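Throughout our pipeline, every protein is held as a single compact record rather than as scattered files. The remainder of this section carries one protein's record, kept here as part of the documentation.

===
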Amino acid sequence: MSAPASPPLPPARTGAPFRASAGVRAAGVLLALYTLYALSQLDFSWQRFSEGLGHGARLIGKMFPPDLDKWDILGKGIVESLQIAVLATALGIALSLPVGFLGARNLMPAWVTWIARFIVAVCRSLHPVIVAIIFVKAVGFGALAGVLALTVASIGFIGKLFSEAIEEISPKQVEAVRATGASFMNMIAFGVLPQVFSRFIGFATYQLDSNLRNSTMVGIVGAGGIGGALFSAFQRFDYGFVFTILATIVAIIVLAEIGTNALKKALDV
C-alpha cells in the first residue's frame, strides 16, 4: 500500500518580504519632513556641532589628572545616593504591587483599573528631577526629598509594566486554581504570581539600576546624594573632582549590572 501523498506546498512568495504599505511609507515621509523642520526651528547647524566637539574635548582635557584628595566628600555622597536608590526602589516596589494588580484589566473591574492606571499615569507624567524640586519645596533639602521623588518614579514604571505583564498571563492556570475553590488571594498567589515572577524580578532590578542613575540627578536640585557635590564641583570649575565623581558613578552602575545579572542567575529567571 503506497503512502498517502503529501499536500502540495504553497507557492513561494516573490518580491520584498517586508513590503511596507502605502500608509507606512507616507508616515515615514511625514516623519522625515517633520524632522527636517524641527532641526531648522531648533537652530541646529553643523558648525555648532563641530565647535561643540572642540569645547567638549577641551573640557575632558581639564579633567585630567583626576582629583583624588576629596574621598570624604565623595564617599559621603556616594553612600547617600546608594541609600536613596535602595530605599526608593524598595518603597516603589511595595507600592507598585497593589497598583499593578488593580490596574490589570483581566483581574479587576473597569472602574478600578481606570483609577489605578490614572495613578500610574500621574507618576509617569513628570521627570524625577521635577518631582524632586516639588518635594524639596515640600519637605526641605536632603535625602528624604530624593527618596520620595524616586519612589514616585518607581511606581510609574513598575506599576505600568507589572499590570501589563499580568494582562498577558495564561488564563488556564488561573481558572484551574479558581476551580479548586481557592480564595482570591490564593488565586493571585498560585495562579498569577508564578507566571509573572521572572518578569517582575527583571522590572525590579532595572528600576534599581535606574534609581542609581537618577539619584545623581535629583541631588543636583538639593534632594541629597552625590549630585550636590557634582554640581558644586562644576560651579568651582573643579573638573578633576568632576571626573572622579563621574568615574565612580560609572563604576557603581557597572557593579550593579554585574550584581543584578548574578541575582537573576541565582534565582533562575
Q: What stands out?
A: The chain is about 75% helix and 0% strand. The chain has a mean pLDDT of 86.
